[in-house]
């Protein structure tokens, strides 16, 4: 895997037509290959009709297209049944659906929900709200400073009061994988359910709900090169059956009378109103591109080399404080850091002037940055995808050298 060559960049119209851009913010949202943009257009040109709302062939084609992507998602995550895959708008909505609809089924006063301090706000605030509503307690698992969650911490925090454990599969700040399986085993041992936030793992790793021990799993299409506005929630069928809908209205009912209604089966019960059918169809094209055209092994191999190269170059600079594991092999695309003595917003703005796109701020993980003691509750994050190359990393390093020169040139 030669990271000096880039066989993928030409597939992405934005990158192909903007050689000046070094896009290092794929953890926030990925770039889209032409095949995804084409698919979105193809939907509107060849099968545009409201799915489920007609018996004519266009509508039937639109309905079938969505069913195909549901099956494709199920295969991608090793889910036993395609109809337990629910389309939402994003990971945030998927996690809210579990917190709002499932929590009341199991959570009561004195019970506990366990999450880690590494969670994105999307996997944190919904649990704050659910615990508040139920009179339950939100318990945090704290890792070592390098992101490692110890067995002792898991054993101490997951106990008889725990009803739900929810954790990221990969941290969007530390970049490392969390021990989802161990967390799931601990959850199941006390009769709790395991929720996995796979927003940062689906684009990089093989994800299998069975191997992870997940009872619910959420991710966003847009981080895996699909259009913005399509998310997934997979859930264990018996749990989905138990849950009331979060949203009500069109297409989610079985029958409606003046004073009450009954619900459609899963997944329609959770999919009120018209969905982004073109977006779902194009998400299917994105997942095909990721898993078939590129292939997850190639993704892992290339991103592994890119991250290793980037971390080596960053460590040579001598003024970078890394956040997360020192071992590059533990980073899945994400490298967070600070330039000593320089506010991350200044770093990002200066890099932007030379076309290098990184993210700076709290990365929707304020409690994590507070716990790590990160100054200003802010850091820089460079996140890599297989469509990056050595040149992108070199440009990041050159830009950071320039930043250091601007702020410390006269030191
Ligand atoms: N969880 C994690 C780990 C994330 O990285 C993100 C996106 N940064 C989210 C949840 C939320 O994803 P979305 O904005 O698509 O809802």
From TrEMBL:
Keyword Cytoplasm among UniProt keywords: no
InterPro entries: Aminotrans_V_dom, Cys_dSase_SufS, PyrdxlP-dep_Trfase, PyrdxlP-dep_Trfase_major, PyrdxlP-dep_Trfase_small
Principal EC category: transferase
Matches recorded under SUPFAM superfamilies: PLP-dependent transferases
Superkingdom of origin organism: Bacteria
The keyword Ribosomal protein is assigned to this record: no
Catalytic activity from the UniProt record: (sulfur carrier)-H + L-cysteine = (sulfur carrier)-SH + L-alanine
EC number, UniProt record: 2.8.1.7
GO molecular function term, any single one: cysteine desulfurase activity
Keywords attached to this entry: Pyridoxal phosphate, Transferase
Leader peptide range in chain numbering: none
Cofactor(s) annotated in UniProt: pyridoxal 5'-phosphate
Domain Aminotransferase class V: start-end pairs: 23-396
Family as reported in the entry's similarity comment: Belongs to the class-V pyridoxal-phosphate-dependent aminotransferase family. Csd subfamily.
NCBIfam families, alphabetized: sufS
Protein name, per record: cysteine desulfurase
Species for this entry: Thermophilibacter provencensis
Lineage of producing organism: Bacteria, Bacillati, Actinomycetota, Coriobacteriia, Coriobacteriales
